[in-house]
Amino acid sequence: MSNLLLEIENISYTYTQTEWQLRDISLQVNAGEIMGVIGPNGAGKSTLLKIAAGILKPDAGSIQLLNEPIYKLERRRIARILGYLPQNVTSLFDYRVEEVVAMGRYAHAKGLGFLDNNDLAITKRCLEQTETTEFRQRSLSHLSGGERQRVLLASVLAQEPKILLLDEPTTGLDLHHQVRFFELLAHQVRQGLAVVVVTHDLNLASLFCDRLILMQAGKVIHQGTPNQVVRESVLGTVYPDNIHIDTHPIHGQPMVLPLAKRKDIDRQGDPQ
Amino acid sequence: MRGLATRRTLILSILVYLLLAFTTLLIAPFIGGETIRVRQVVHDVFHHTWNIQTEIFFYQRIPRVLLAFLVGGSLALTGSVFQVILRNPLATPYTLGVTGGGALGAVIAILIPGLSLTWGPFSSVQLTALLGAGLTLGLIYVLARRSKSVSTNTLLLAGVTVGILCGALILFVRYLASPHLLVAMDHWLMGGLDIVGYRSLAALLPLLLPGAGMLFMQMGSYNLLALGEEMALGYGIDVTSVQRLSLIGGGLVTAGAVSFSGPIFFVGLLIPHGVRRLSGFDQRIIMLASFLSGGAFLVACDTAARTIVAPTEMPVGIITALVGGPFFIYLLFRKK
Predict the structure, then answer these.
(1) Does the N-terminal or the C-terminal CB of chain A have fewer CB atoms within 10 Å?
(2) What is the block-wise mean pLDDT of chain A (272 residues), using blocks of 10 residues?
(3) Nearest to B105, CA basis, from B94, B115, B95, B120
């Protein structure tokens, strides 16, 4: 059986109001891999993810989800294959954690979405996987940013998708929770899930992703393994003069260090 | 600690609201300017010798109580849905300007008594109110409709603007009206449920039932929409379809309610929020509970309206605001 889950071919999209364009993008997502989408602000990463999730319809090109054109599939069918977590999810009501997680079962539930024993078991499992069981009765407004993101991830996992599309899921999280979040994704990927994650954290992307897509101004300018993409010759075209590449002393992955131009940042006079 | 939304928890959650609605419906017809005794009604029904009390009970009280229940329930139901669809906790069935259109139709019919636009059980005022409400809803929908989806912000702004426009036109109609017509207009604008017999009720059902049905059919989608359109799409909701059906369903309900009872404010805002304070946020429970408690609330208010100043009666809109306002403030500041 093929590992290919999602195939995007030559898609283009234009925002009519600004005439900003996403141009001629092709990529494939396979089971059991984490793909990182990186690039500066306004590169088109979120737009690409929305198109891949079938939320925006491209002006040209095709998207195949499990070898079927995504726009011919019902939304519920798409949701059973593909989970999508957008940026900045704001809830109108202060739902409890377990209610939010259980919402992920909508695509599988019949009729009005009431839960059966199987749904309850899957909700419980997703709470456990994301380590959110202990505050399942708390309402969303009583969670920290990291807890909230884990709850939303649990909800999307409850869809039991084969592929997860996550748009900057670790923004606003502290270092510990960022790492924990990616570890959680890596664990899911080992079980056969595919993850596409948009992130600005180049180091976490380098550490956890199997492949990286580097975007700029609506185009994919490079894709490959972290070792192929996280290089000064590649990243330097997007972040000129601002980066220095080094190697992670423990994991051996390429790491990106920021470079500052201001001379007064050199603190040679600082006490030792 | 509440459980997750299984069928069992839904039934348990709405049992108390069912009981409330049932009790109100049972008691309200016996209360009013003319006190009606249960024994008398039962005796008359079994002996086919109806006296005036039994006539009042069956031809005035029961249809009026049923109308109040249906109107109150439908307005609260629509309010609970519009708050989600428009992503605005202040949204009510009247936010989209439907009431303004209905009221404009009604005052025009009152201004021109010769206007004999009757159709079936609809009086001239009811029919023009319905037409006004329907046209307003259609206009707002066309204004807000974009190629791919309905923009909720545009919808809100268009609704408020059309409401203001209708308000200005109502003032113009009132400027043209003679004093005795102004009294009739004011009476209509304060809201009322004074119907006799079942013809009006039967005419209202073809609007309320499909409208409420369209809302109830989608009640599994609204929780997910409350997390935002993109999240809802990701969960598998056909957002555009849900929005359209909700607007049409809610519009039908509101147009029907406004045309028969005039604008009854507050029920559509207060009841859904009150119910959320008591029963959480699961929209499936909230919709059913809003319908039942909205109906019970309006029946109780209408009973008060026709009892407090008997043998005359107060416009029910005054009671809903006077009773509902303080109660809502109590709920807001009650310790969670």
Answers:
(1) C
(2) 84 84 91 94 92 92 92 92 92 92 91 83 92 91 88 94 94 86 92 93 94 93 93 87 87 87 63 52
(3) B115
Domains and CATH numbers, chain B: 7-333 (1.10.3470.10)
Is A50 within 8 Å of B230 when comparing Cβ atoms? yes
- CB contacts < 8 Å between A and B, how many? 105
Chain A residue with Cα closest to B9: A114
Domain coverage including residue A167: 4-260
DSSP of B83-139:
HHHTT-TT--TTTTSHHHHHHHHHHHHHH-TT----BTTB-HHHHHHHHHHHHHHHH
CATH code for the domain in which residue A107 is found: 3.40.50.300
Q: Does residue A165 sit within a domain?
A: yes
Does residue A267 fall inside a structural domain?
Answer: no
Tell me whether residue A98 is in a domain: yes
Query: How close is the nearest chain A Cα to the Cα of B13, in Å?
Result: 14
Phi-psi region of A228 (alpha: psi -120 to 50; beta: other; left: phi over 0): alpha
Instruction: Please count the structural domains in chain A.
Output: 1
pLDDT of residue B325: 81
Per the CB < 8 Å rule, is B227 touching A91?
Answer: yes
Q: ipTM beyond 0.85?
A: yes
- What residues in B contact A106, CB-CB < 8 Å? 220-221, 224, 235-237
Contact call for B227 and A103, based on CB within 8 A: yes
Mutation choice for B interface testing from A75, A120, A135, A148 by most B CBs within 10 A:
A75
* B234 to A53: CB separation less than 8 angstroms, yes or no: yes
Is the residue at A265 inside a domain? no
Q: What pLDDT was estimated at residue A263? A: 66
What pLDDT is recorded for position B299? Answer: 95
pLDDT for the residue numbered B147: 47
DSSP A84-126: EE-SS---SS--BHHHHHHHTTTTTS-TTT---HHHHHHHHHH
> 3-class SS at B217?
helix
Residues in chain B closer than 8 A to A104 (CB atoms): 235
Task: Of B1-15, B53-67, B99-113, B281-295, give the lowest mean pLDDT range.
Answer: B1-15
Span A173-218, pLDDT tens digits: 888 888 988 999 999 899 889 999 999 999 999 999 999 999 999 9
Q: Helix A145-157 to helix A117-129 angle, to the nearest 10 degrees?
A: 140
Is pLDDT above 70 for B119?
Answer: no
Compute the nearest-CA separation of A55 from chain B (Å). 7
